[in-house]
Model the fold of this input.
Amino acid sequence: MKVAYYPGCTLKTKAKNLETSALACLDALGVEWQELERWNCCGAVYSLADDDLIHLVAPVRDLIRAKQQGHEMVLTLCSMCYNTLARANELMKHDEEKRKTINLFMDEEPDYFGEVKVVHFLDFLRDVYGWENFKAKVVNPLNGMKVAPYYGCTLLRPKEAGIDRFDNPSIFQDCMTALGAEAINFPMSTQCCGTYQVLGNPEAALKVSFDILTNAKAHGAEALVLACPLCDYNLGKRQPEMKEKYELAGDVPLFYFTQLMALALGVKPEDCRFELNREVSLEFLRDKNLVKATA
Amino acid sequence: MSTVSEDLPTMEIKAKLIPIYVMGKKYEVPETLTIMKAIEYAGYKYIRGCGCRGGVCGACSTVYRKPGDHKIYTGLACQTVVEPDMYLTQIPFYPALRATYNFHEMTGTAEEVFALYPELFRCVACNNCTKVCPMDVEVMDYISALKRGDLKAAAEISFDCIQCGLCASRCMGELPQYHIAQLARRLNGAYLTPRAEHLKTMVANIETGRYDAGLNGLKEMDVAQLKKVYQEREMEPATAGEDWTPKDKSYL
Done:
Protein backbone atom coordinates (compact mmCIF):
# COMPACT_ATOMS: atom_id res chain seq x y z
CA MET A 1 0.00 0.00 0.00
CA LYS A 2 1.51 3.31 -1.10
CA VAL A 3 0.24 6.82 -0.46
CA ALA A 4 1.31 10.35 -1.31
CA TYR A 5 1.74 12.47 1.77
CA TYR A 6 0.97 16.18 1.89
CA PRO A 7 2.50 17.67 5.06
CA GLY A 8 1.52 21.34 5.09
CA CYS A 9 3.71 24.16 6.38
CA THR A 10 2.84 24.02 10.08
CA LEU A 11 3.85 20.38 10.34
CA LYS A 12 7.31 21.41 9.19
CA THR A 13 7.60 24.20 11.76
CA LYS A 14 5.34 24.40 14.82
CA ALA A 15 3.82 20.93 14.73
CA LYS A 16 6.71 18.59 14.11
CA ASN A 17 5.28 16.35 16.82
CA LEU A 18 2.25 15.75 14.62
CA GLU A 19 4.30 14.95 11.53
CA THR A 20 7.06 12.84 13.08
CA SER A 21 4.68 10.67 15.09
CA ALA A 22 2.29 10.21 12.16
CA LEU A 23 5.03 9.12 9.80
CA ALA A 24 6.31 6.70 12.43
CA CYS A 25 2.75 5.30 12.61
CA LEU A 26 2.62 4.82 8.85
CA ASP A 27 5.91 2.96 9.02
CA ALA A 28 4.67 0.82 11.90
CA LEU A 29 1.49 0.04 9.94
CA GLY A 30 3.52 -0.98 6.92
CA VAL A 31 2.09 1.80 4.75
CA GLU A 32 4.56 3.03 2.16
CA TRP A 33 4.38 6.80 1.95
CA GLN A 34 6.06 9.40 -0.17
CA GLU A 35 6.03 13.11 0.51
CA LEU A 36 4.97 15.09 -2.56
CA GLU A 37 8.14 16.16 -4.32
CA ARG A 38 6.84 19.67 -4.89
CA TRP A 39 4.15 21.30 -2.83
CA ASN A 40 3.09 24.73 -1.63
CA CYS A 41 1.01 26.03 1.25
CA CYS A 42 -2.57 24.78 0.83
CA GLY A 43 -3.90 28.23 1.66
CA ALA A 44 -4.82 27.13 5.21
CA VAL A 45 -8.40 28.40 5.05
CA TYR A 46 -10.93 27.65 2.34
CA SER A 47 -12.28 30.95 1.12
CA LEU A 48 -16.04 31.23 1.36
CA ALA A 49 -16.40 34.19 -0.99
CA ASP A 50 -18.03 32.88 -4.13
CA ASP A 51 -15.82 34.83 -6.53
CA ASP A 52 -12.55 34.47 -4.64
CA LEU A 53 -11.03 31.94 -7.02
CA ILE A 54 -7.46 33.11 -6.54
CA HIS A 55 -7.38 31.45 -3.13
CA LEU A 56 -8.20 28.14 -4.77
CA VAL A 57 -5.09 28.26 -6.90
CA ALA A 58 -2.79 27.10 -4.07
CA PRO A 59 -4.71 23.93 -3.08
CA VAL A 60 -5.49 23.04 -6.69
CA ARG A 61 -1.82 23.39 -7.58
CA ASP A 62 -0.97 20.87 -4.84
CA LEU A 63 -3.52 18.44 -6.22
CA ILE A 64 -2.08 18.91 -9.71
CA ARG A 65 1.38 18.12 -8.31
CA ALA A 66 0.01 14.90 -6.83
CA LYS A 67 -1.59 13.99 -10.15
CA GLN A 68 1.60 14.86 -12.07
CA GLN A 69 3.58 12.56 -9.80
CA GLY A 70 1.18 9.74 -10.59
CA HIS A 71 -0.63 9.57 -7.24
CA GLU A 72 -4.29 8.66 -6.92
CA MET A 73 -4.60 9.54 -3.27
CA VAL A 74 -3.18 12.29 -1.07
CA LEU A 75 -2.96 11.71 2.66
CA THR A 76 -3.16 14.70 5.00
CA LEU A 77 -2.60 15.00 8.75
CA CYS A 78 -3.48 18.60 9.59
CA SER A 79 -7.23 19.04 9.62
CA MET A 80 -7.03 22.53 8.09
CA CYS A 81 -4.94 21.27 5.17
CA TYR A 82 -7.34 18.36 4.80
CA ASN A 83 -10.35 20.63 4.69
CA THR A 84 -8.87 23.14 2.25
CA LEU A 85 -7.58 20.49 -0.14
CA ALA A 86 -10.72 18.36 0.04
CA ARG A 87 -13.05 21.29 -0.62
CA ALA A 88 -10.93 22.63 -3.47
CA ASN A 89 -11.00 19.12 -4.92
CA GLU A 90 -14.80 18.95 -4.64
CA LEU A 91 -15.10 22.24 -6.45
CA MET A 92 -12.80 21.10 -9.24
CA LYS A 93 -14.89 17.95 -9.58
CA HIS A 94 -18.31 19.52 -9.64
CA ASP A 95 -18.20 23.21 -10.54
CA GLU A 96 -17.59 23.24 -14.25
CA GLU A 97 -17.51 27.01 -14.67
CA LYS A 98 -15.06 27.69 -11.87
CA ARG A 99 -12.93 24.73 -12.88
CA LYS A 100 -12.65 26.20 -16.35
CA THR A 101 -11.60 29.60 -15.00
CA ILE A 102 -9.01 28.08 -12.66
CA ASN A 103 -7.57 25.79 -15.31
CA LEU A 104 -7.39 28.69 -17.74
CA PHE A 105 -5.55 30.83 -15.20
CA MET A 106 -3.09 28.04 -14.37
CA ASP A 107 -2.17 27.57 -18.00
CA GLU A 108 1.37 26.47 -17.11
CA GLU A 109 -0.05 23.34 -15.44
CA PRO A 110 -2.05 20.45 -16.90
CA ASP A 111 -5.82 20.80 -16.54
CA TYR A 112 -7.27 19.30 -13.40
CA PHE A 113 -10.70 17.74 -12.90
CA GLY A 114 -10.55 16.51 -9.31
CA GLU A 115 -8.99 13.16 -10.18
CA VAL A 116 -6.94 12.80 -6.99
CA LYS A 117 -8.64 11.60 -3.81
CA VAL A 118 -7.93 13.64 -0.67
CA VAL A 119 -8.02 11.70 2.60
CA HIS A 120 -7.24 12.44 6.22
CA PHE A 121 -5.23 9.91 8.22
CA LEU A 122 -8.36 8.99 10.21
CA ASP A 123 -10.61 8.14 7.27
CA PHE A 124 -7.65 6.50 5.58
CA LEU A 125 -7.44 4.13 8.57
CA ARG A 126 -11.17 3.47 8.54
CA ASP A 127 -11.82 3.19 4.80
CA VAL A 128 -8.55 2.06 3.28
CA TYR A 129 -6.56 0.31 6.01
CA GLY A 130 -9.52 -0.97 8.04
CA TRP A 131 -10.05 -0.89 11.82
CA GLU A 132 -9.54 -4.64 12.15
CA ASN A 133 -6.12 -4.52 10.48
CA PHE A 134 -5.32 -1.47 12.52
CA LYS A 135 -6.24 -3.12 15.81
CA ALA A 136 -4.03 -6.06 14.94
CA LYS A 137 -1.01 -3.75 14.87
CA VAL A 138 -1.50 -2.45 18.41
CA VAL A 139 1.29 -3.76 20.64
CA ASN A 140 1.04 -1.39 23.63
CA PRO A 141 -2.68 -0.85 24.32
CA LEU A 142 -3.42 2.43 26.05
CA ASN A 143 -4.82 0.65 29.16
CA GLY A 144 -8.20 2.31 29.19
CA MET A 145 -6.74 5.79 29.36
CA LYS A 146 -9.67 8.22 29.28
CA VAL A 147 -9.10 10.40 26.25
CA ALA A 148 -11.56 12.82 24.72
CA PRO A 149 -11.26 13.04 20.93
CA TYR A 150 -11.72 16.65 19.90
CA TYR A 151 -12.83 17.06 16.29
CA GLY A 152 -13.04 20.82 16.01
CA CYS A 153 -14.62 22.13 12.83
CA THR A 154 -12.66 21.22 9.79
CA LEU A 155 -12.64 17.42 9.98
CA LEU A 156 -16.43 17.36 9.82
CA ARG A 157 -17.69 20.48 8.14
CA PRO A 158 -19.01 21.05 5.58
CA LYS A 159 -20.69 17.75 4.81
CA GLU A 160 -18.99 17.23 1.43
CA ALA A 161 -15.56 17.42 3.07
CA GLY A 162 -16.43 15.73 6.38
CA ILE A 163 -14.71 12.46 7.24
CA ASP A 164 -17.76 11.48 9.29
CA ARG A 165 -21.29 12.73 9.99
CA PHE A 166 -21.05 16.07 11.72
CA ASP A 167 -23.91 15.69 14.19
CA ASN A 168 -22.77 12.54 15.92
CA PRO A 169 -19.40 11.46 14.61
CA SER A 170 -17.62 8.33 15.82
CA ILE A 171 -14.49 7.95 13.69
CA PHE A 172 -12.14 9.55 16.23
CA GLN A 173 -13.61 7.52 19.10
CA ASP A 174 -13.30 4.34 17.02
CA CYS A 175 -9.64 5.09 16.44
CA MET A 176 -8.93 5.68 20.12
CA THR A 177 -10.91 2.61 21.17
CA ALA A 178 -8.90 0.52 18.71
CA LEU A 179 -5.77 1.72 20.50
CA GLY A 180 -7.08 0.45 23.80
CA ALA A 181 -8.12 3.80 25.22
CA GLU A 182 -11.51 4.69 26.62
CA ALA A 183 -12.91 7.32 24.25
CA ILE A 184 -14.85 9.99 26.10
CA ASN A 185 -17.78 11.56 24.30
CA PHE A 186 -18.43 15.15 25.23
CA PRO A 187 -20.94 17.58 23.76
CA MET A 188 -18.42 20.24 22.79
CA SER A 189 -16.13 17.91 20.82
CA THR A 190 -17.28 19.45 17.55
CA GLN A 191 -17.37 23.07 18.71
CA CYS A 192 -14.92 25.54 17.21
CA CYS A 193 -11.80 26.16 19.35
CA GLY A 194 -11.81 29.83 18.38
CA THR A 195 -9.41 29.38 15.46
CA TYR A 196 -8.07 32.62 14.05
CA GLN A 197 -10.21 34.66 16.42
CA VAL A 198 -7.14 34.30 18.60
CA LEU A 199 -5.75 37.16 16.51
CA GLY A 200 -8.78 39.42 16.15
CA ASN A 201 -10.64 38.64 19.34
CA PRO A 202 -8.35 36.66 21.65
CA GLU A 203 -10.69 37.03 24.64
CA ALA A 204 -13.61 35.36 22.87
CA ALA A 205 -11.34 32.60 21.59
CA LEU A 206 -10.00 31.99 25.08
CA LYS A 207 -13.53 31.66 26.49
CA VAL A 208 -14.64 29.00 23.98
CA SER A 209 -11.40 27.09 24.44
CA PHE A 210 -11.89 27.16 28.18
CA ASP A 211 -15.49 25.94 27.81
CA ILE A 212 -14.37 23.05 25.61
CA LEU A 213 -11.72 21.88 28.08
CA THR A 214 -14.07 22.24 31.03
CA ASN A 215 -16.75 20.31 29.20
CA ALA A 216 -14.34 17.50 28.32
CA LYS A 217 -13.13 17.24 31.92
CA ALA A 218 -16.70 17.27 33.24
CA HIS A 219 -17.35 14.19 31.13
CA GLY A 220 -14.43 12.34 32.63
CA ALA A 221 -11.61 13.05 30.18
CA GLU A 222 -8.09 12.74 31.48
CA ALA A 223 -6.60 14.06 28.27
CA LEU A 224 -7.64 15.51 24.92
CA VAL A 225 -6.56 14.26 21.50
CA LEU A 226 -6.77 16.39 18.40
CA ALA A 227 -5.58 16.66 14.82
CA CYS A 228 -5.06 20.36 14.26
CA PRO A 229 -2.09 22.60 15.16
CA LEU A 230 -4.33 25.64 15.56
CA CYS A 231 -6.66 23.79 17.94
CA ASP A 232 -3.53 22.71 19.79
CA TYR A 233 -2.48 26.32 20.12
CA ASN A 234 -5.84 27.54 21.36
CA LEU A 235 -6.67 24.62 23.64
CA GLY A 236 -3.16 23.80 24.77
CA LYS A 237 -0.69 26.63 24.68
CA ARG A 238 -3.24 29.11 26.04
CA GLN A 239 -4.01 27.06 29.15
CA PRO A 240 -1.87 29.29 31.37
CA GLU A 241 -4.07 32.23 30.33
CA MET A 242 -7.20 30.20 31.05
CA LYS A 243 -5.92 29.38 34.50
CA GLU A 244 -5.38 33.04 35.14
CA LYS A 245 -8.65 34.40 33.72
CA TYR A 246 -11.17 31.57 34.14
CA GLU A 247 -9.75 29.53 36.97
CA LEU A 248 -9.19 26.46 34.84
CA ALA A 249 -8.61 23.83 37.49
CA GLY A 250 -5.36 22.13 36.54
CA ASP A 251 -3.73 21.75 33.16
CA VAL A 252 -5.29 19.37 30.66
CA PRO A 253 -2.87 17.06 28.83
CA LEU A 254 -3.18 17.43 25.07
CA PHE A 255 -1.86 15.14 22.34
CA TYR A 256 -1.95 14.84 18.63
CA PHE A 257 -3.84 11.61 18.03
CA THR A 258 -0.84 10.30 16.13
CA GLN A 259 1.38 10.58 19.21
CA LEU A 260 -0.76 8.23 21.28
CA MET A 261 -1.27 6.04 18.23
CA ALA A 262 2.48 5.80 17.78
CA LEU A 263 2.96 4.71 21.41
CA ALA A 264 0.29 2.03 21.03
CA LEU A 265 1.86 0.81 17.79
CA GLY A 266 5.17 0.34 19.54
CA VAL A 267 7.00 3.41 18.24
CA LYS A 268 9.78 4.59 20.54
CA PRO A 269 8.60 7.53 22.70
CA GLU A 270 11.48 9.70 21.45
CA ASP A 271 10.06 9.42 17.93
CA CYS A 272 6.77 10.87 19.15
CA ARG A 273 8.38 14.23 19.96
CA PHE A 274 6.57 14.65 23.31
CA GLU A 275 9.13 17.28 24.24
CA LEU A 276 7.23 19.61 21.91
CA ASN A 277 4.03 19.14 23.92
CA ARG A 278 3.44 20.95 27.18
CA GLU A 279 5.08 19.46 30.26
CA VAL A 280 1.71 18.37 31.69
CA SER A 281 1.23 15.99 28.74
CA LEU A 282 4.53 14.28 29.36
CA GLU A 283 3.81 14.00 33.10
CA PHE A 284 0.52 12.37 32.27
CA LEU A 285 2.23 9.70 30.15
CA ARG A 286 4.75 9.05 32.91
CA ASP A 287 1.90 8.59 35.39
CA LYS A 288 0.34 6.10 33.03
CA ASN A 289 3.69 4.31 32.65
CA LEU A 290 3.58 4.87 28.91
CA VAL A 291 6.90 6.66 28.91
CA LYS A 292 9.71 6.17 31.35
CA ALA A 293 10.31 8.80 33.99
CA THR A 294 13.53 10.62 33.22
CA ALA A 295 16.03 11.29 35.95
CA MET B 1 22.08 63.44 -43.91
CA SER B 2 24.55 60.89 -42.72
CA THR B 3 25.24 60.50 -39.03
CA VAL B 4 28.52 58.74 -39.75
CA SER B 5 31.46 61.01 -40.44
CA GLU B 6 33.32 60.50 -43.74
CA ASP B 7 36.57 59.22 -42.28
CA LEU B 8 35.07 56.45 -40.13
CA PRO B 9 34.75 53.01 -41.68
CA THR B 10 31.12 52.07 -42.30
CA MET B 11 30.02 48.54 -41.72
CA GLU B 12 27.91 46.80 -44.23
CA ILE B 13 24.97 45.14 -42.54
CA LYS B 14 24.51 41.74 -44.09
CA ALA B 15 21.91 40.42 -41.70
CA LYS B 16 18.27 40.83 -42.60
CA LEU B 17 16.59 43.78 -40.89
CA ILE B 18 13.50 43.09 -38.83
CA PRO B 19 11.09 45.47 -37.11
CA ILE B 20 11.06 45.68 -33.31
CA TYR B 21 9.22 48.14 -31.07
CA VAL B 22 11.20 49.72 -28.24
CA MET B 23 8.82 51.38 -25.80
CA GLY B 24 6.26 51.52 -28.63
CA LYS B 25 8.53 53.02 -31.27
CA LYS B 26 9.40 50.99 -34.34
CA TYR B 27 13.03 50.34 -35.37
CA GLU B 28 14.51 48.16 -38.11
CA VAL B 29 17.36 46.15 -36.62
CA PRO B 30 19.54 43.24 -37.79
CA GLU B 31 17.84 39.99 -36.82
CA THR B 32 21.06 38.55 -35.38
CA LEU B 33 21.38 41.07 -32.55
CA THR B 34 20.53 40.68 -28.92
CA ILE B 35 17.90 43.07 -27.57
CA MET B 36 20.67 45.09 -25.95
CA LYS B 37 22.70 45.43 -29.14
CA ALA B 38 19.53 46.15 -31.11
CA ILE B 39 18.62 48.99 -28.76
CA GLU B 40 22.11 50.41 -29.18
CA TYR B 41 21.86 49.90 -32.94
CA ALA B 42 18.65 51.89 -32.83
CA GLY B 43 20.59 54.79 -31.33
CA TYR B 44 20.05 54.51 -27.60
CA LYS B 45 22.93 54.93 -25.22
CA TYR B 46 22.84 52.98 -21.97
CA ILE B 47 23.24 54.86 -18.73
CA ARG B 48 21.27 52.35 -16.63
CA GLY B 49 19.79 48.99 -17.57
CA CYS B 50 23.07 47.55 -18.73
CA GLY B 51 25.79 45.97 -16.63
CA CYS B 52 27.88 42.90 -17.23
CA ARG B 53 26.58 42.08 -20.75
CA GLY B 54 27.17 38.48 -19.74
CA GLY B 55 23.82 37.43 -18.31
CA VAL B 56 24.65 37.48 -14.62
CA CYS B 57 24.24 40.99 -13.23
CA GLY B 58 20.48 41.35 -13.53
CA ALA B 59 20.51 44.96 -14.76
CA CYS B 60 18.93 44.48 -18.19
CA SER B 61 15.75 42.56 -17.49
CA THR B 62 13.33 43.09 -20.34
CA VAL B 63 9.63 42.47 -20.75
CA TYR B 64 8.18 41.84 -24.18
CA ARG B 65 5.19 40.59 -26.06
CA LYS B 66 4.89 38.95 -29.45
CA PRO B 67 2.23 39.71 -32.05
CA GLY B 68 -1.06 37.85 -31.54
CA ASP B 69 0.08 36.33 -28.25
CA HIS B 70 -1.31 37.35 -24.86
CA LYS B 71 1.61 35.89 -22.91
CA ILE B 72 4.18 38.05 -21.18
CA TYR B 73 7.73 37.15 -22.13
CA THR B 74 10.86 38.17 -20.29
CA GLY B 75 14.54 37.92 -20.92
CA LEU B 76 17.84 39.56 -20.22
CA ALA B 77 18.47 42.12 -22.98
CA CYS B 78 22.09 41.04 -23.26
CA GLN B 79 21.16 37.36 -23.74
CA THR B 80 17.96 37.39 -25.77
CA VAL B 81 18.00 37.62 -29.55
CA VAL B 82 15.41 39.94 -31.15
CA GLU B 83 12.35 38.54 -32.86
CA PRO B 84 10.25 40.22 -35.54
CA ASP B 85 7.57 42.58 -34.18
CA MET B 86 8.44 42.11 -30.54
CA TYR B 87 7.20 44.91 -28.31
CA LEU B 88 9.65 45.44 -25.52
CA THR B 89 10.72 47.62 -22.69
CA GLN B 90 13.48 47.22 -20.18
CA ILE B 91 12.79 47.29 -16.46
CA PRO B 92 16.24 47.91 -15.01
CA PHE B 93 14.99 48.29 -11.46
CA TYR B 94 11.83 47.40 -9.59
CA PRO B 95 11.34 48.81 -6.10
CA ALA B 96 10.91 46.22 -3.36
CA LEU B 97 11.16 46.63 0.38
CA ARG B 98 14.39 45.20 1.73
CA ALA B 99 14.36 44.56 5.46
CA THR B 100 17.12 45.92 7.67
CA TYR B 101 18.78 43.43 9.99
CA ASN B 102 21.93 42.89 11.94
CA PHE B 103 23.15 39.71 10.38
CA HIS B 104 25.59 38.89 13.15
CA GLU B 105 22.79 38.80 15.69
CA MET B 106 20.83 36.26 13.69
CA THR B 107 20.98 32.49 14.12
CA GLY B 108 19.37 31.12 10.96
CA THR B 109 15.83 30.27 12.04
CA ALA B 110 12.69 30.45 9.94
CA GLU B 111 11.08 32.73 12.54
CA GLU B 112 13.74 35.37 11.89
CA VAL B 113 12.76 35.41 8.22
CA PHE B 114 9.04 35.48 9.10
CA ALA B 115 9.58 38.46 11.42
CA LEU B 116 11.52 40.46 8.83
CA TYR B 117 9.25 39.56 5.91
CA PRO B 118 5.75 38.86 7.26
CA GLU B 119 4.37 39.57 3.77
CA LEU B 120 5.70 36.10 2.88
CA PHE B 121 2.33 34.77 4.00
CA ARG B 122 0.48 36.88 1.44
CA CYS B 123 1.61 34.45 -1.27
CA VAL B 124 -1.36 32.77 -2.95
CA ALA B 125 0.76 30.44 -5.10
CA CYS B 126 -0.37 32.18 -8.31
CA ASN B 127 3.07 31.37 -9.77
CA ASN B 128 3.37 34.69 -11.67
CA CYS B 129 6.86 35.10 -10.18
CA THR B 130 8.08 31.82 -11.61
CA LYS B 131 6.49 32.53 -14.98
CA VAL B 132 8.22 35.90 -15.27
CA CYS B 133 11.70 34.87 -14.06
CA PRO B 134 14.26 35.35 -16.85
CA MET B 135 16.57 32.88 -15.10
CA ASP B 136 13.93 30.11 -14.88
CA VAL B 137 14.15 30.07 -11.10
CA GLU B 138 11.17 28.34 -9.50
CA VAL B 139 10.42 31.45 -7.46
CA MET B 140 7.05 30.29 -6.12
CA ASP B 141 8.64 27.04 -4.98
CA TYR B 142 11.28 28.82 -2.91
CA ILE B 143 8.63 31.07 -1.40
CA SER B 144 6.68 27.90 -0.53
CA ALA B 145 9.81 26.40 1.01
CA LEU B 146 10.28 29.54 3.12
CA LYS B 147 6.69 29.44 4.35
CA ARG B 148 7.37 25.99 5.72
CA GLY B 149 10.64 27.20 7.25
CA ASP B 150 12.97 25.35 4.90
CA LEU B 151 15.73 27.95 4.42
CA LYS B 152 18.09 25.41 2.92
CA ALA B 153 15.68 24.47 0.15
CA ALA B 154 14.94 28.15 -0.49
CA ALA B 155 18.65 28.90 -0.75
CA GLU B 156 19.18 26.06 -3.17
CA ILE B 157 16.15 26.75 -5.36
CA SER B 158 16.95 30.47 -5.56
CA PHE B 159 20.63 29.93 -6.29
CA ASP B 160 20.48 31.25 -9.87
CA CYS B 161 18.64 34.46 -8.88
CA ILE B 162 20.31 37.57 -10.28
CA GLN B 163 18.09 39.99 -8.31
CA CYS B 164 16.54 41.60 -11.38
CA GLY B 165 13.30 42.11 -9.49
CA LEU B 166 10.83 40.98 -12.18
CA CYS B 167 9.27 38.54 -9.69
CA ALA B 168 8.40 41.44 -7.40
CA SER B 169 6.91 43.34 -10.32
CA ARG B 170 4.31 40.66 -10.95
CA CYS B 171 3.51 39.60 -7.38
CA MET B 172 -0.11 39.60 -6.24
CA GLY B 173 0.95 39.55 -2.63
CA GLU B 174 3.46 42.39 -3.14
CA LEU B 175 6.35 40.26 -1.88
CA PRO B 176 9.98 41.28 -2.39
CA GLN B 177 10.88 37.69 -3.34
CA TYR B 178 14.44 38.36 -4.39
CA HIS B 179 15.36 40.11 -1.15
CA ILE B 180 13.84 37.31 0.95
CA ALA B 181 15.75 34.74 -1.08
CA GLN B 182 18.98 36.64 -0.55
CA LEU B 183 18.41 36.56 3.20
CA ALA B 184 17.72 32.82 3.02
CA ARG B 185 20.95 32.21 1.12
CA ARG B 186 22.91 34.32 3.59
CA LEU B 187 21.47 32.53 6.61
CA ASN B 188 21.96 29.16 4.99
CA GLY B 189 25.55 29.91 4.10
CA ALA B 190 26.51 31.41 7.44
CA TYR B 191 24.52 29.41 9.97
CA LEU B 192 23.02 26.26 8.46
CA THR B 193 25.74 24.86 6.25
CA PRO B 194 28.28 22.71 8.09
CA ARG B 195 31.71 24.30 8.43
CA ALA B 196 34.48 22.80 6.31
CA GLU B 197 36.80 21.42 8.98
CA HIS B 198 39.67 20.76 6.54
CA LEU B 199 39.65 24.47 5.64
CA LYS B 200 40.56 25.39 9.22
CA THR B 201 43.49 22.97 9.13
CA MET B 202 44.64 24.34 5.81
CA VAL B 203 44.48 27.97 6.97
CA ALA B 204 46.41 27.03 10.12
CA ASN B 205 49.03 25.29 7.96
CA ILE B 206 49.45 28.39 5.82
CA GLU B 207 49.64 30.68 8.83
CA THR B 208 52.32 28.59 10.51
CA GLY B 209 54.49 28.85 7.37
CA ARG B 210 54.22 25.26 6.21
CA TYR B 211 54.31 26.24 2.52
CA ASP B 212 56.64 29.24 2.74
CA ALA B 213 59.77 27.33 1.77
CA GLY B 214 58.12 25.85 -1.30
CA LEU B 215 56.77 29.19 -2.47
CA ASN B 216 60.05 31.01 -1.86
CA GLY B 217 61.81 28.29 -3.83
CA LEU B 218 59.53 28.98 -6.79
CA LYS B 219 60.13 32.72 -6.51
CA GLU B 220 63.88 32.23 -6.82
CA MET B 221 63.65 30.19 -10.04
CA ASP B 222 64.16 31.69 -13.49
CA VAL B 223 61.66 31.12 -16.30
CA ALA B 224 63.45 28.08 -17.70
CA GLN B 225 63.54 26.40 -14.30
CA LEU B 226 59.90 27.23 -13.68
CA LYS B 227 58.91 25.73 -17.01
CA LYS B 228 60.87 22.58 -16.22
CA VAL B 229 59.29 22.21 -12.79
CA TYR B 230 55.87 22.85 -14.27
CA GLN B 231 56.27 20.35 -17.08
CA GLU B 232 57.67 17.66 -14.80
CA ARG B 233 55.13 18.11 -12.03
CA GLU B 234 53.35 15.02 -10.84
CA MET B 235 49.71 14.96 -11.80
CA GLU B 236 46.88 12.96 -10.34
CA PRO B 237 45.92 10.40 -13.01
CA ALA B 238 42.37 10.75 -14.37
CA THR B 239 41.66 7.23 -13.19
CA ALA B 240 43.04 7.74 -9.67
CA GLY B 241 40.92 6.54 -6.79
CA GLU B 242 40.06 8.30 -3.54
CA ASP B 243 43.18 6.93 -1.88
CA TRP B 244 45.67 8.41 -4.38
CA THR B 245 48.56 10.43 -2.91
CA PRO B 246 51.50 12.13 -4.66
CA LYS B 247 55.01 10.78 -4.34
CA ASP B 248 56.18 14.03 -2.74
CA LYS B 249 54.20 14.05 0.49
CA SER B 250 55.86 17.08 2.03
CA TYR B 251 52.82 19.33 1.50
CA LEU B 252 50.13 16.93 2.66
User: Anything to note?
Assistant: Strands of chain A lie at 2-6, 32-35, 73-76, 117-120, 146-149, 182-183, 223-226, 254-256.
